[in-house]
Amino acid sequence: MAATNKGKTAKPAKVVAFSVNGKAVELQIGSEPHQVESSHTLAHTLRETLGLVGTKITCDNGACGSCTVLIDGKAILSCMTLTVECQGKSVMTIEGLADPVSGRLDPLQQSFIDHTAFQCGFCTPGMIMSAKALLGENAAPTEDEVKEALSGNFCRCISHYHVVKAVLAAAPGGSE
Amino acid sequence: MAQEYRFIGKPTKRQDAAAIVTGGAQYLDDIKFHNLLHGKVLRSPHAHAYIVKIDKSRAEQLPGVEAVLTWEDVPDWIGGTPRVVRVLDRKVRYVGDAVALVAAKNAQIAKEALALIEVVYQILPAVFDLEEAMKPGAPQLYQELPGNIVTAGTPAFGRNCLTEVVMGDVEKGFGEADAVCEGTFGYENIANPIPPEPPGAVAHWEEPNRVTLWVSNQASYLDKIILFHLFGKKVEVRTHGAACGGSFGTKLMSWQVQSYATLLSKATGRPVKIIFTKEEHIAAFVLRPGSRMHARVGMKRDGTVTAVSGTWLVDTGYYSATTQAQVAVGCGEIQLMTRCDNWDLKTAIVCTNRNASGSVRGFGGQELKCSFIPVLCLAMEKLNIDPVEFIKKNYVKPGDGYFWRDGDWYTYRGIDYSDCMDQGARRFGWQEKWQGWLQPSAVDGPRRRGIGVGVHGNADIGEDSSEAYVRLHPDGSAMLFSCITEHGTGQRSNYVKMVAEVLQIPMERITVSPADSLVNPFEYGPFGSRGTYAIGSAAIKAAEDARRQLLEMVAPRLDAKAEDLETVDGMIFVRGKPEKSIKWGAMGYERTILGYGRFDPDFTLANCMTTFVEVEVDTETGKVELLHVVNATDAGQIIDPPGLEGQLNGCLGSSGIDSAIFEETVLDPISGHILNANMIDYKWRTFSELPPIDNVVLETPVASHRFKAIGVGEVATSPGPMAILMAVSNAVGVWLHEYPVTPERVLKALGKINANGKVNDSAKVNAKVNAKVNAKVNAKVNANAGSGGAA
Amino acid sequence: MKPFLHLNAQTVAQAVKSLVKFEGRARLNAGGTDLFGLLKDEFLPEYPEAIINLKSVAGLNYLKQSKGILRIGALAKLCDIAESPLIKERYGALAEAAHAVASPQLRNVATIGGNLCQDVRCCYYRYPRHLGGPISCARKGNGPCLAVRGDNRNHAIMEGRKCFAVCPSDTAVALAAFDARLVVVGPAGERRIAVRDFYHPLGNALERDEIVKEIEVPALAGRARQSFLKFTLRRPIDFAVVSVAALIVVENGVCCEARIALGAVAPGVIRATAAEEYLKGRAIDVESAAQAGELALAGARPLPKNAYKLEIVKTLVKRGVLGLPLETAGEGDAGGPCPHGNPERG
Ligand SMILES: Cc1cc2nc3c(=O)[nH]c(=O)nc-3n(C[C@H](O)[C@H](O)[C@H](O)COP(=O)(O)OP(=O)(O)OC[C@H]3O[C@@H](n4cnc5c(N)ncnc54)[C@H](O)[C@@H]3O)c2cc1C
Ligand code: SF4
Ligand code: FES
Ligand code: FES
């Protein structure tokens, strides 16, 4: 953004541009139906504007991790992120994990299937995204590191035990 | 020992697995609708009040608002058991009660419109405690329910619905006892299972009298039936069940949110979606019933229970939908775990000015036992009876009888679970750890360990009716029609497995119909523990019926009798002679075969879950840590190992074990606001605090259906809370009787906080606490815990 | 969330100008993890007209040490503070406090400035508008405090007046132990406020158009044994019931410097000065640590439902002074002689 307004009060932006799952997205900011409002969360924009409903909303208040997506590789809560503040960022959602060409699932996704690491499945996209961020930084996490990385993700069915196994098994540097 | 099957008992992929891990599974809020409006509910700030005046004109004028409805605008649809709850009423009965409904072009506008509705209330006194509510002169919630006593019994269970347990001669029984104990205990923290997906509905009304609903429920066919009656039997209702993001019994039905959406759609002629926020979910949807029991038990030295008398009071909040059913089932379940000849147990359901209680996993029995077992424990302590021996002796045995929910007497024809309890105890190391009542199993400085055990089981594995169709296709594939939503148990895939086993075709060749009430036969739904036996039976019978028809049809082509034919992988041949075979296509390519299966209720079998827990209590902070859990059960035949494992691990969450450790709904004692209606202040277990869980699952064939299996998933949450209370009491050497065992309660029990809130002198208190733990135990356990030293 | 005007500030000065312009009707957004709770639940009487994004101010997320002072930019993220080798090495209690906040996803965006300026978690105060709220109270200036007569299990046991909500910040507790100061910028220029003076019963010391720019953390003279202990009902995603930061410098077997800060017990962070004074010049052992725990309770006047916090304060102070972990076993006063022998770790 240009620094011409130095010393003046801050100005609102008119568009916001970022990428989602590798595709560029440019959205106008405003209150018309096709625009994003400045108060829209990223979770809302992903689901309602971009139709990416794989990202789930449970608490909509930062407490459960269901809405976890990656921004520049880090796990963040899309319900606690303003879309207008995503300018220039790279967002990855559950829909972006499988190979876009071959359709091949990410090893994490496959491992979740193989370990039946879900019951109702509502928390699963958020779990997988938190795990994805972990494996991006640490190819061979210990069990405790997996638990720590997932400690912000709610699962009421108690699929935790299967999830830990699934993540460890999917770690590229892991022994399994 | 269990039989070997091709599919049953093998870990197989859930049919919806790929959809779930890619974000493609469609939950209610993920479905796209054309021309959709969004609904919101204006909620009461008062626990009890009359609406004197509502002015909605400003809200109606807000651009984007399509409808605003108040009690004055809606038909007199009345729900609940008995029918006393209007969808919108001129009286509000809890903080959060619905006052008005708004439909607008988006949720934000609808929310803004709520703020523009002006309501004048006449505030009424409110009552939050069930015994206060029963007193003369207490505020009355409904004219129809004098004394706030909710009519006993549910019509759903018939005229003689079980409302009490009365038999034998209790006075004689008490006379025969070696110990008689009595007390009043409660399970009153009205915990909330909080499935992740909030309650919601989409309704589309079509004039003159038809409505289609998309629901996110556990029992979508039941929704249709309930709404049909709610709407005065004048509206044709169709329900679509989708993937359900958890329920734990709570989304058995959601008639209120469904009727809100229906009313708004009727008013606007457009589809309307309402999804509760998490805060609404916690403050204005289903809680566990509050349970308080005054009981007296007589016990003999050998653990025989000679008499039980008492009153079980159940706080249902502002209305009841299923509470009578929970009381009926609870009354049955208490008999399953207490083989006793003399009973005089009465019940009463009371309404109070808080959010309603309703159906939750553990359905009545969990609530009852959490209040009852502490009394049994007092007697066991007096007589020095090991609780594992007690439950082994007292859990229902073949040939025993009990009154079940419809008031009839049934004779149990299931298995004896003693062996299962023994195996669980062995896995847990009960014998080595048990030091006697109110004795810790290990002491390490300020940290004390304690163990406890709980048991639960029910005979509703065979409750209610189910129907299914199985359609065979000439290409060797099949389709199961069963009105089942997938809410996490994996049952949709399990029924496919059962059908695959009967038809001997790969599971991938079988699809299940969507849970659409228009195309499927009658189905009560996968709740309680009925999924495996009741619904499974219908699916199996439908598959068998279809298979029989197929074989009869092609028998002439093979010059054989149908009984001698076999079919595997879409080929049909004479048993033992697979060389000469024909394909299913022999039925003709312009044909399908439809089999029908039905299950009728059977209350003569029961499941059983025994849970052993070990806790560690920090006596200087009062914190309770869960160290180890062992669940022991017998499933008859495991259908899907990982699915079952998941269900059993579920013992921690959904207001199960943790409802004794940190889960509770906090109500303001003066105003009635639920103060922790969010997921920070309502505590739930995270990945950081996972105790090891061992699940001991036996497979003793049960006389249920073809695969000799019964459901055990639902009951996993139920034995845990009472086991925790027992374990903590043993650890600290003092009885704790309230759920959850917060640091405050533990410190109080230890005498570290006195009644007027002052802290007691710690040196004196610690000396006193220590004196309770005898030196022998200390020495023995310290050796166990491997911390050299303190003898 | 209800609409608002969204502004990206390029500089601190610009953000201050915007605050001045909106005369109290604008709010700063750093990580937003506390702010959005307010915007979503609309529990305050006024909804902000504008949100001023601070993340667009470049270079305000530094962690640097110069002349014995650690300087932390207000936009430094908690994940970076928790992981910083510099902070872990010299200011371990602060790294632990930052790590104890919320969850991994939240620490990835939450800032230390926001952590210090976050609003209280009182359940009456935060009761959401859409559930029949909000609830009026003294802190909002429109009613009496409901917590004094209601459910006050999480409220202050010390220094409450009019409002009994406790300071929820974890990092403030560690920072107060270090005698850290906030560098605050407003229309009239810069000023410094000690963390221990920053909070008062009805709010914090910021004027409505001031911004926290930096946190200055003076290093301790000697090598201190540091600990931050946070007692919660579950872990993580839970606010402290009680937290304690303890910095203990021992020379020649006696304590020459003791800093003990208590969190979640008062509207601000409490320094247990009586306990600190008592420890100076003494050997650190189970008895002196336990005595420090008793002294830390000086001035405590619990409400009807929170006396249990006193016992937890005592325990945490004792364990913190001894350098024991929260979930410790056998420092000995309940089970007999101390099984660990030497309580001083490492
Ligand atoms: C689920 C959950 C769990 C949490 N758990 C914890 C916990 O365990 N411990 C804990 O301490 N906190 C916790 N929090 C609160 C909060 O997330 C953290 O305190 C976080 O550090 C706040 O930082 P932020 O940058 O996101 O603040 P923001 O939300 O951006 O800001 C918070 C407030 O401070 C103001 N502000 C921000 N920066 C400045 C500045 N530089 N100068 C002046 N004012 C400023 C904002 O206007 C706003 O009013 C939790 C929050 C959630 C949602
Ligand atoms: S403690 Fe403070 S914030 Fe809470 S109700 Fe009282 S005045 Fe309001
Ligand atoms: S939905 Fe975003 S954290 Fe719960
Ligand atoms: S699988 Fe249901 S919440 Fe995690």
Q: Rounded to an integer, what's the Rg of chain A over CA atoms? A: 18 Å
Tell me the Rg of chain C in angstroms.
Answer: 20 Å
**Distance between the ends of chain A:** 47 Å
Proportion of residues in β-strands of chain A = 5-15%
| Subunit arrangement of the protein | heterotrimer
Number of strands of chain C: 14
Low-confidence segments of chain A, given as residue ranges, are 1-6
Q: Specify the CATH architecture of the domain at 225-322 in chain C.
A: 2-Layer Sandwich
User: Largest contact between protein chains?
Assistant: B-C, 70 and 58 residues
State the strand order across the main sheet of chain C: 4-5-10-6-7
CATH topology of the domain at 225-322 in chain C: Enolase-like, domain 1
Named CATH architecture of the largest domain in chain A: Roll
Strand order in the sheet with the most strands of chain A: 2-1-5-3-4
CATH level 1 name of the largest domain in chain A: Alpha Beta
- Can you identify the CATH superfamily of the domain at 225-322 in chain C? CO dehydrogenase flavoprotein, C-terminal domain
What do these coordinates show?
The complex is a heterotrimer of chains A (176), B (791) and C (346). Chain A has 176 residues and is of the alpha+beta class. Chain A is built from five helices and five strands, in the order E-E-H-E-E-E-H-H-H-H. In chain A, helix 2 (107-114) crosses helix 5. The radius of gyration of chain A is 18 Å and the shape is elongated. In chain B, strands 3-7-1-15-12-13-14-26 form an eight-stranded mixed β-sheet, with helices on both faces. In chain B, strands 9, 10, 11, 16, 17 and 18 form a six-stranded mixed β-sheet that branches. A five-stranded mixed β-sheet of chain B has the order 21-22-31-32-33, with helices on both faces. The longest helix of chain B has 24 residues, at 531-554. The two termini of chain B are 47 Å apart. In chain C, helix 5 (92-99) packs antiparallel against helix 8, helix 10 (273-279) runs antiparallel to helix 11 (286-295) and helix 11 (286-295) runs antiparallel to helix 12 (308-322). Chain C has a five-stranded antiparallel β-sheet with strand order 4-5-10-6-7. A four-stranded antiparallel β-sheet of chain C has the order 11-12-13-14. Chain C has helices at residues 12-22, 35-41, 78-83, 85-90, 92-99, 104-107, 112-117, 171-177, 195-198, 273-279, 286-295, 308-322, and strands at 5-8, 26-29, 50-53, 63-66, 69-73, 181-186, 189-194, 199-200, 203-204, 211-218, 224-231, 242-251, 254-263, 270-271. Chain C is built from twelve helices and 14 strands. At the B-C interface, helix 3, helix 8, helix 18 and helix 19 of B face helix 12 of C. The complex binds flavin-adenine dinucleotide, iron/sulfur cluster and FE2/S2 (inorganic) cluster (2 copies). One FE2/S2 (inorganic) cluster sits between chains A (118-123, 155-157, 159) and B (196, 246, 488).
